[in-house]
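**Paired protein data**
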Amino acid sequence: MAERGAPSRTAASPLGKTTANVDVYTPSLLHPIPRAEGRERMGLPADLPAMRGEDQWTAYELSWLDVRGRPHNTAVRLTVPVGSPMIVESKSLKLYLNSFAQTRFRQTADVLKTLNSDLSLAFRAPVLVDLLGRAQLGPLTETLPGVCLDEMDVDIDAYERDPELLVAADPGTTAVKETLHSWNFRSLCPVTGQPDWAAVVIEYRGPAIDRAGLYRYLVSYRSHSGFHETTVERIYADLLAHCGCVSLSVWARFMRRGGIDINPFRSTREDKAPVLRLAYQ
């Protein structure tokens, strides 16, 4: 879960606290936090240059009652633009969605309208909300594009973020276009200290990046505290600063926690994240 703002705002969130089970619709459970505060804590500028993308959330635990009292269960996918001034603390989203459980809605369209209204207000930007039945979740995949870095024959001793590990494979080479990925990414929640696991994909065009150094760099996040969104932005910013990328996309698929997975996508050229569902999610 991602680095979301100044300590006072994070401390005010329900993350890491015992909370009551609220099962009647309560939109005030949503806890927005300014993106700019999280970026400041990570040493990032409030507006990263040339950054496009979105955050794609999948929450697998949404249930409500129809007018006859019968339960309906779906998953919900949220697509949040990177330009939204706010993000929402993920445990607060879980509590908000749980509050639908004993609430009656006349039809599914009313549920969708309520979600759209509340979440767009919380994020302070238009949020695309899709309700997904079992057939709409899509097939699971165990593959990622490009070359996997995880079997590299390297020694590693850096477990705190170290961007100096990022170097060109050969400064004199011509530009390349390649996609690299790792299934072994780990960072820590800055509030609870619990590990967050992810697959990370890097697509770039520019001078070839030394793969051993890139893998060591990704592993160096193992003891790094940060929430999902700003962790991916930190990787994106480091690659632009140290590797001379002409174009770059960085995206991560984080393992779900509390019934929610968060999947940030940052790019110099693309707005839309890939839609896929990894087997471990």
In short: Confidence is low (pLDDT under 50) at residues 1-7.
